[in-house]
Amino acid sequence: DGCLPVTTIADFKRVRELTAGVNNRVSFIESSLVDSKDVEVVGNSGKKMIRSRQAPTKVQMNSNSLDHIKF
């Protein structure tokens, strides 16, 4: 279904470095993606997941994909 757990994103080394002062990384990421036009946060068996809004099984990332996220 093209979903990726938010906890996986939160565990990326670079994300951990950029969010060192954040108490709850997962909540921070979820709230950062609320207005995203590219990805959406969905619930899946009580676990928060992200997926592409268009063609969720064919995610294409480029250097501008994460520009809207504020750290």
Walkthrough of the structure:
By secondary structure, this protein is α+β, with helices and mostly antiparallel strands. It is 27% helix and 20% strand. The protein has a three-stranded antiparallel sheet with strand order 1-3-2. The longest helix is centred in the middle third of the chain and has 8 residues. The protein is globular and about 35 Å long. The mean pLDDT is 82.
Oligomeric form of this entry? single chain
The secondary-structure class comes to alpha+beta
What global shape is seen? globular
Q: How helical, in percent, are the residues?
A: 25-40%
The SSE string, one letter per element, is: EHHHEE
Features:
single chain; 71 residues; alpha+beta; three-stranded antiparallel β-sheet; 3 strands; 27% helix
Write the layout of secondary structure elements.
Layout: E1 4-5, H1 6-10, H2 13-18, H3 25-32, E2 39-44, E3 47-52
Antiparallel strand pairs: 1-3, 2-3
